[in-house]
Prior knowledge:
Blueprint: H1 5-20, H2 25-32, H3 40-44, H4 46-49, H5 61-87, H6 94-119, H7 124-130, H8 143-152, H9 173-177, H10 196-215, H11 221-227, H12 230-233, H13 236-267, H14 283-287, H15 289-292, H16 303-307
Amino acid sequence: MAIKPEIEKLLNKLEKKYDAIGQNLETHLEGLLYSEPLTYWDYIQTDALLNLQTQRTTLPDEMVFILYHQVNELLFKMILWEIDQIAHHKKITTAFFSSRLMRISRYFDMLTSSFVIMQNGMEVEQYLKFRNTLTPASGFQSAQYRLIEFASTDLINLIDARFRETIDRNTPYEHALDHLYWQAAGKDYKTGKKTYLLKAFEEKYKNEFIAFTKEYNTINLYAKFKELPKKVKEDPKLLKAMRHYDYTVNVTWVMAHYNAANYYLSKGNDKNESIEATGGSDWQKYMHPKYQRRIFFPDVWTDQELKDWGKDV
Length: 313
């Protein structure tokens, strides 16, 4: 049988590819004779994915809660994947930077709108029962979300506002991490001592966090933005993308989370009183952006906008 020119061309390219890594093309071609055709369920690993949900109670809406948070973690992974492309891009362009930022923002738009789905998808009565089996676990312990923060901005912008003047680039990473804004949610707000929630979280992830913050110290999104030429930094599309991402993550998404928590922990109970979060934090002060004052890209906001951050929501 005569080999078509286009097939011969492909074979030559394949031969060069495998020669470069010391492999024999004939061996790989023979392997194709015995390989099974790819299916959707094998490629997506559907069976494994759909068997990752384990309820701790018999309440059906707990499954909604588990699935919802697993979807969040998948979206967080997509966000980190996009940030990584910007951070490690050698010759970044305005178009590339803007397009990737908007991708990330759209993922957070999905996360924001999804809170309504969860709010209307779980009965308050069921939630207030099964949540007691979750203590002391908390969404606070999402390591991927913390990585997104570290990869988005300089570490100083994540430090609790009360301690920023005492911390600079010469401060040891471990000391800086002990003064991050979210530390307040992992400490008893009466005694200031670390709760089991925070202790367990740091025991599992602290070393990874230190290594990650060191890696992203000079390549986080804000650092990459500041390296751009002045003309590029003033590009309207890029500025719009930076502002949209910053506000979406640090105000819109946070408030959607806050309102959902408020529905279940305040308005959703019979006494109409605020219930403590599963991790034990003063969640209302911890979550609201006007208290957090977490801003990834201070340079793209006016002084007045920075002053009023989170007050209009």
